Amino acid sequence: MKEHVVIVLCLVMCIMADTYLTNPRGSNNRLNENTATRTNANRLFDSQNNNRGGYNTGDRGDKAAGQHPRRQYSMQYYASGATESEQSKLIVEWTNQHGCGGNKDSPHKTNCNIVVQMMCQTNGTDANYPTGQGNGDTDKTERNLYLRDGTTTNTQGYNQPNKNEYEGDNQNTKNNAYTNRMNGNYNNVQTNRGLHETVWWYDMCRFREANKGLYIADQDLGKGSLGYVGSERTRQNNGGTRRGYECPEERDHYPYWQPTHQGPYIDSYQTTPWIDVAYLTGNSTDCDRVKEGSENQNGKWRCVLNESSARKYGRSINEEDCKQEDGTWVQFHSYLEVISSANTEAKCNKYKNTDKRNKISWMSIRSDKDQKMCVVQAPLPKCEQAPWSRVNHLGNSIDTKGNASRVDTELPYFPSGTAKRCVMRLRYNITTDEFDNYGTDHRHNYDLSKGVISPVEDNPFVDVAGESKPLRLAMNTNQFGRTFQDRTHAYVVLPRLDGMEGKMLHNLNVRGKRGNIVQTFPGVEYDFVPNKLAISEEELLHIQWTGSNTHNNGGNGGDGQTGDAGEGTGGTDRHNFLQMLRSDLNFPAPFENTTMWDMVESVNHPKATGLDLAIGFATSGYYCGMSKFGGCPTGYHVDDSKKGAFQQQLNNAPASYFGHVLRFKKPGTCVYVCTRNNNFTNRSQKGVLWVTPKQK
User: CB 533: neighbour CB atoms within 10 A?
Assistant: First the structure.
């Protein structure tokens, strides 16, 4: 098979580093562990990060969710609207250990890029969680497609393919071998285990031949169970280790040259490819290449086998070899969603004429099918300079006003008005300039038979005073070319409410977990995100947080300190929101001295009074208000509480709170605090909100 040269933007020369999402909170493969280290680094994806990083999935109430998925809490954000003035703004914040950013005025020791993506599917609410354990089609589909965090830290199982599925002339024999194995894989997917990519996607990865045009230095990738090097093997994953159902080659290279669809199109489980949200770079000239390579609006090709084959995905990664494999070279188009109700071009055009954010077309999502649908494609990703941060420091950036590295993103607009269930991933790549990152490819791989010596080798020697006085460099070409990653837990994007028309929406959340700076590291302590926000009186604000009841940070401590210093019950995250008069104070103001609750009204619960809002935010939803109103039923408000006594440190309050979307009736300033976590010895969970007058 001929070599296939692809120049990719996930640069070929990397240095060992770690990256951790702080907002939305990154999992680093954690689920609900009460230990300092995660239980299973291979649960859903390959992060390459320290075992201590990450945050547990949220709990809905004051007890651990345990084996009850509906007791977990997924963050719920409202979508953007159809126009640019209706953005739902979400700050994506992270730390990266070995620095990023830099220009001629602020040079850096490395080059880097940051790729932010998300994957979404229909069936956004937790009520859709797969409960069926049977072998019926509905149960099997639920288990195999529903994106979820799971309730156990075990990795989904997988039976690998072998040569009898593609070798030989008897197609029935090959089909039976493939079908029997994959039916076993489908049946063995467990409801209680997490799922991002599908087993179908990973199996395609195993059959797809590795791109021979890539630079692998002096690494020997070996051969897998099929007798050739598949795309489950890369320079940094040369043994083909499986992490969830992630495809290592797709993980390590961006933009990827194949479609990243997660499975055959099923209307009720519309699962997007990886949608590009942002590309942050140390070299702004990369942006044109990113726009040309982004799958958001650029079709990608793959080999589809003919109808006689039970396995529809081929080995080949170019058209010529695909034909020799008796396949068809098919172009696949990305989609944010398909509007099923718009089943004619005229109906589709109505959406197209009102959607000012996405690209909507009456088209087929694959070139070998005539069936046309109303396809919504996401905008091209934001591309800008990466924020500057220093090397060997999981800290803040000089480009983000003293905050951790961050980028302002916009949540998608889904024209169908359907709730979506999503996961976000952030990949961090850093490079050296000791050779051409774009021009170095397979021709530079170590091969003495051709007289080729790789530009970098494992632990090379350099002469400083003749050959008798060499120095050894600490270089490992396996680790020297690495991509680091973090992913969030599942979250939900809700359709906008009627009261949000024409309004920009800001999301204010909480980051961190229980413990002091040493105990939480490489995670962070509690804080609001953003903790300083200036918005217009014409804009909306959604205040929401989530937390775990099992952030005990107990043994094994790994290479850090265990413990969970903080207030209230050990292991529990708790937050609230009260107004203060000044940010240098530590006492919240009495309600009668507050100004914020006269400034706002609730969009999602318009009958709530200012006092109701203050009580809900102060108690993290233990009480939803003073008196009964729509959305605050009998037994949950102060006047008619059927609940036990409220614990002053929030011990019996919910760990997560959906909060309210606030509309502003007048401008003003609000300084706010979390009473439980404003422990002056090791954290200061405060923030300030400036609301400016309407523009005349």
Answer: 19
Helix axes 137-145, 171-188, angle to 10 degrees: 70
* SS3 label, residue 326: coil
Residue among 338, 581, 428, 340 nearest 113 (CA): 428
- What tokens were used for 497? 């409410």
User: What pLDDT, on a 0 to 100 scale, did the predictor assign at position 12?
Assistant: 36
Mean pLDDT estimate for the chain: 90
CA-wise closest residue to 455 among 119, 12, 7 = 12
pLDDT of residue 97: 87
CA 48 to CA 30: how far, in whole Å?
A: 13
Report the number of secondary-structure helices (H) and strands (E) in the chain. Answer: 10, 30
Kindly report, residue by residue over 443-492, the tens digit of the pLDDT.
777 777 887 777 777 788 887 776 667 888 887 777 666 789 999 999 99
- The answer to whether the beta carbons of residues 678 and 587 sit under 8 Å apart is no
As a whole number of angstroms, the distance between CA 511 and CA 529 comes to 7
Pairing assessment for the beta strands 19-23 and 58-59 based on DSSP bridges = unpaired
Partners of residue 508 on adjacent β-strands: 543
What domains can be seen in the chain, in order of their start residue? 19-24+75-431 (no CATH), 502-692 (2.60.40.420)
Q: Kind and range of the H or E element at 301?
A: strand 300-305
pTM above 0.90, yes or no: yes
Report d(CA 118, CA 663) in Å as an integer.
28
